[in-house]
Write a structure and sequence with these properties.
- This protein is an alpha/beta fold.
- About 40% of the residues lie in helices and about 15% in strands.
- The strands form two sheets. The protein has an eight-stranded mixed sheet. Strands 13-12-11-10-9-14-15 form a seven-stranded parallel sheet, with helices on both faces.
- Helix 2 (about 50-60) packs parallel to helix 3, helix 5 packs across helix 14 and helix 16 crosses helix 17 (about 370-395).
- It starts with 19 loop residues before the first strand and ends with a helix.
Length: about 400
């Protein structure tokens, strides 16, 4: 049986860590919190099984500490978020309980060990366990051992999705019409997920040469704009994309539930934009891929999407099973940009550049010396260098 919660050994059990103080920023939704989190703030979240993307977003904001009301590693599967926070040197106070979410936003907090104190009123408002690398690794080992239960649930969810969306997956029934011309073009789909910044940087020459249709999935539209690209399509439930991106002139496709409810529809219309609505059971990532495939994309390049089984489980959502099937549906058209940045990360050393330059100069000198005109030119250059060197010596 898979454990639902793991009480991890606390760092402060080995002796209190130095206290730190900062303003509290409180939000149950981690991705909403990171939009207003500033360096030195103390992030207070309620995020069971903290995933990698959320942890990387928190690290980018450079908070003084992260307080999690829930268990950062419940033991259901080996989620990667806590390890990333601890490796970045950000204190993680885990399992602080529902009292943590009652902390008022903006209150100055002091953290000592696992105790969280209202600095101005000198009273403890919550207490948790401060995790270190050893405690995280121990919990991850337990989670890996209990992963079989999650694999079974993933398989069941996959079959449920197949039954619900059989017509959409096999025949494209329900895919809406759009004005963006995709037929025969390359399509680049950007999700603000794993290594999206590095992959976008690596793909800049590809984008310049092939001019693919650029699709941003929710916050992926802002990622494109940050990389100085203009999205052609924005797909998603519109909960993590900026108003500026929605007003950028891109065609908007709102991902709706199968019952027709579309939480992002009202927001888009309030900005004076009339979107296309795409009802589907899966994730917005899936909707973007199915849309590109149905409209005749020649090649689909995915940035920041989910590829490995650990990544599917790390997102911690039942709907990730749909992404697995969607990838099977799109098939050979799909190319993952993930890992491209790793492949091209090697750099030429300074000494290699110097050596290459020296060899090139020697080859040029040999070529010039083989002709009368070249020898004369080299002799003139040598005389000029001698004069310059003599002038420098005379100045000192």
């Amino acid at each position: 049986m898979v454990p639902m919660s793991i009480r991890l050994p606390s760092r402060h059990s080995r002796g209190p860590a130095p206290g730190l103080t900062g303003p509290a920023r409180v939000d149950r939704r981690t991705k909403d919190l990171t939009k207003r989190l500033r360096p030195g703030d103390i992030a207070v979240i309620d995020h069971e099984d903290l995933d990698r993307v959320s942890a990387e977003a928190l690290v980018a904001c450079r908070p003084a500490a992260v307080v999690n009301a829930s268990s950062s590693i419940s033991g259901k599967y080996p989620n990667l978020g806590p390890e990333i926070l601890v490796a970045a040197g950000i204190p993680l106070i885990d399992h602080a309980g529902p009292e943590a979410m009652e902390i008022k936003d903006g209150v100055t907090l002091t953290i000592e060990g696992g105790d969280i104190t209202d600095h101005d009123h000198d009273r403890t408002v919550a207490a948790g366990e401060r995790l270190d690398a050893e405690a995280v690794q121990a919990a991850m080992a337990v989670a890996r051992a209990g992963m079989s239960g999650q694999l079974e649930a993933f398989a069941e969810n996959t079959m449920d999705y197949l039954r619900q969306e059989r017509d959409l997956l096999f025949d494209g029934v329900g895919v809406p019409d759009i004005t963006t011309e995709i037929e025969g073009r390359h399509v680049l789909i950007v999700v603000r997920g794993y290594h999206y910044k590095e992959d976008l940087q690596i793909l800049r020459h590809y984008i310049r040469e092939y001019k693919p249709i650029l699709i941003g999935v929710d916050g992926g539209a802002d990622a494109l704009i940050e990389a100085r690209h203009k999205p052609d399509l924005i797909v998603g439930d519109m909960d993590s994309v900026s108003d500026d991106a929605l007003r950028s002139g891109a065609e908007i496709v709102v991902h709706a539930y199968r019952d027709g409810k579309a939480p992002g529809l009202e927001r888009v219309r309030s900005l004076g934009v009339e979107p296309v609505v795409f009802p589907a059971t899966g994730t917005s990532e899936d909707v973007a891929m199915l849309l590109a495939d149905d409209k005749g994309a020649q090649l689909i390049v995915a940035v920041g999407t989910h590829v490995t089984l650990v990544e599917f489980l790390d997102k911690g959502r039942k709907g990730m099973a749909s992404t697995f099937l969607t990838r099977l549906r799109v098939g050979s058209k799909l190319v993952d940009a993930k890992g491209v940045s790793q492949l091209y990360r090697a750099r030429i050393s300074l000494w290699s550049l110097v050596l290459m330059l020296a060899v090139g100069l020697l080859a040029l000198g040999a070529a010039l010396w083989s002709t009368d005109g070249g020898r004369a030119l080299l002799q003139v250059l040598g005389a000029r260098i001698d004069d310059l060197w003599s002038s420098i010596q005379g100045a000192f």
